Amino acid sequence: MWDFDDLDAFFKDFGEPAVLKWDYREIDVIFFNSTTDIHLLEELNEDSNPFVLAKTSDISDIPHESGTVIQVIINDVNYNILDVEPDGTGFSKITLKKINYAD
Fold first, then answer.
1. CB 32 within 8 A of CB 50
2. What residues of the chain score a pLDDT lower than 70?
3. How many CB atoms neighbour CB 29 within 10 A?
4. Residue 11 in contact with residue 24, Cβ under 8 Å?
5. Is 103 a member of any domain?
């Protein structure tokens, strides 16, 4: 398990701010926006698989009830939180889905 002072320094050095919309609290996260190529009917489509790493202690109070929609803003982009997976070392992986308001 990480020393929490080390985690604070790690996120301060490498993180970026994210705002949890359910309580408008700012936390530091490490943002990953990978894409996956999907071939459907001979067309190439890209599917984004964004996620962030956050300190588990910063997000331990996020509601996990079924049907609860929590949003987060990162770099002025809105995302729904799909899943929160603590890894037991002080980090949690938060799977995101970009909100497309045009849909």
1. yes
2. 1-5, 35-48, 64-66, 102-103
3. 24
4. no
5. no
Q: Are 99 and 78 in contact (CB under 8 A)?
A: yes
Residue 33, domain member (yes or no) = yes
How many domains are there within the chain? 1
The C-alpha atoms of residue 59 and residue 18 are separated, in whole angstroms, by 11
DSSP state of 23: T
Q: What is the CA radius of gyration of the chain?
A: 15
In angstroms, the CA 84 to CA 17 distance is: 18
Euclidean distance between CA atoms 54 and 62, whole angstroms = 12
CATH code at position 70:
2.40.10
